[in-house]
Amino acid sequence: MTAAGPGRPTVVIRPLVWQRVALAVLCLLTLATLAVLFFIIGYILSKGVPVLNAEFLFTMPQRMGKEGGIASTIVASLALTALALLVATPIGVGGAVYLTEYTRESVLTRVIRFGADALAGVPSIIFGLFGFILFVIKLRMGWSILAGGLTLALMILPTIIRTSEEAIRAVPAAFRDVSLSLGATKSQTVARVVLPNAAPGILTGIILGMGRSIAETACVIFTAGSSLLLPGSLLDPARTMAVHFYILAREGLSMERAYGTAAVLVVTILAINAVAYILMHRLMRNRR
Amino acid sequence: MAAKVEARRLEAWYGGHQVLRGIDLDVRPNEILSIIGPAHSGKTTFLRAMNRLTDGQLGFRRTGELVFDGREVRLWDVTVLRRRVGSIFATPVPLPGTILDNVAYGPRLKGLRDRRRLREVVEASLRAAFLWDEVRDRLHTPALRLSGGQQQRLCIARTLAVEPEVILMDEPCSGLDPISTAQIESAMRELKSRYTFVLVTNNTKQAARVSDRVAFFLGGELVELGPANEVFTTPHDPRTDDYLAGRIG
Questions:
Q1: Is position A138 within any domain?
Q2: What is the pLDDT of residue B248?
Q3: Cβ–Cβ contacts within 10 Å for residue A164, how many?
Q4: Is the pLDDT reported for residue A66 higher than 90?
């Protein structure tokens, strides 16, 4: 289309053409992102799935993992992650409630927020070293699930605080007014209106933390050790799937078993994600 | 009869900005008192001060007396005060959850757990708000699926379920169509025998239709207060006349 008339540009780029170009570019970028994801997952599964069978999942590793299964590492991963989430979730959500509902914006809250952001960016190996010094040595927990879980909890705490905080802030002020106007106290309002409505966002933070915990290696080697024995208590050392994968691959013990371990790890993460979202969907069904 | 709410020399500020200037006003039992006035004249602040929804607001400060049922509102236990002085907001805000959950919210806070009793309270409140017949078959569907007018009546039912004595309404019909507005107005007239209403409205026709008395606020001052027919036909203050004629505000 060419525009007529004096004083106007003679060539007009048609808006519709622009629309299509922009749409194509955006689609391409989305596809590129998805392609990377599918390539990684596909590659790991194609290498790992052939190794998988009941024996691999349910028996203990033999000869440092060259033979046998990975049962103890699955137990270790789940135990460490569960402990980390059990410790970090109440503290993180509580901290977020405090920051958003019970304080006014001040220098202190800004310092706390800055601290949380800074902590979120600290490399996990630093957390590992810190956990080693504090929990393993000073508090005499030794290499153990307890020390590892607490260290992981510290590592994911900032993520949970910040995502929960955003989720709580996103709950409309009008909901709080309504609840208060009906005679609710502040804590009743938080428990009955604010937290339920922020739950999906809070869950996202917990899932991010879960993913980071279960996939962590550096920090776990320092604090939970790399024992292949089945842990019998919180004070026993343990080797997680991620650590097992790292050692198998690095020491050249068995690449195919390394990929098998990776495949189980990836499937576990996907499964936990799926279950969490399904639960959340059920909880929210009657709300919208 | 003793006034339900009495304001004496009531002044209020947000930070350094004064929003109420020496308000002297009584709210009588079982009346509908409308507060009219242009934007930023202090109507909403006056309303929120009555059940202390101003408590959490940044920089809010007030002096003078504001008395509910013989006692300064600041001396009331705030949750008790808010149960006895309920609020309806400009935009209907159903809490996410079912219709039943919404109406039962207040009674549950008070510790009512018995399902049959809850159901009775919910039904009575929905009937009083003229919503029961429209929702009786779907109490367990999300409240957000109701239309705007139904949502506002749900909010009224939710407030009634707490059994307040005074109901504060802040432009409750501003987003509603004429039919929904008429339904809410007739609900108010029905409920007047049991409740006291303070209605903030920008709609002077609405004020004329439902109120017993009308207060005109301007710039944080109470300019005129009188029976509705008097204020609208023969206002004493020229500023009221100007506002009603659309010359200010």
A1: yes
A2: 72
A3: 28
A4: no
- Which chain B residues have a beta carbon less than 8 Å from that of A181? 51, 53, 82, 86-87, 89, 159
Q: What is the phi/psi pair of residue B180, to 5°?
A: -60, -40
Q: Look up the pTM and report it.
A: 0.83
pLDDT in tens, A220-233: 999 999 999 999 99
Whether residue A49 is contained in a domain is answered as: no
Query: Per the domain annotation, does A23 fall within a domain?
Result: no
Contacts by B66-73, CB closer than 8 A, 24 or more apart: B66/B5, B66/B6, B66/B7, B66/B8, B66/B10, B67/B5, B67/B6, B67/B7, B67/B8, B68/B4, B68/B5, B68/B166, B69/B4, B69/B165, B70/B2, B73/B49
Amino acid found at A221: I
| Residue A174 belongs to domain spanning | 54-284
Q: Please classify residue A60 by burial: count the beta carbons closer than 10 Å to its beta carbon, then call 0-12 exposed, 13-18 middle and 19+ buried.
A: middle
At residue A3 the predicted structure's pLDDT band, cuts being 50, 70 and 90, is: very low
Does residue A173 sit at the B interface (CB-CB below 8 Å)? Answer: no
List CB contacts (< 8 A) between A197 and chain B.
Answer: 96
Report the domain count for chain A: 1
* Beta-carbon separation of A174 and B58 below 8 A: no
Does residue A74 contact residue A167 with C-beta atoms inside 8 Å? Answer: no
Q: What is the pLDDT of residues B138-191, one digit of tens each?
A: 999 999 999 999 999 999 999 999 999 999 999 998 888 899 899 889 999 999
Would residue A21 count as lying in a domain? no
pLDDT of residue A68: 86
CATH of domain B5-244: 3.40.50.300
Interface test with A, best of B76, B102, B105 (most A CBs within 10 A): B105
Minimal CA–CA distance to A84: which of A204, A206, A260, A175?
Answer: A206
Domain with residue A106: its CATH number is 1.10.3720.10
Residue B92: which pLDDT band, with cuts at 50, 70 and 90? Answer: very high
Q: Where are the domains of chain B?
A: 5-244
Residue A6 confidence class, pLDDT cut points 50, 70, 90: low
Measured between beta carbons, the chain A residues lying within 8 angstroms of B140 are 286
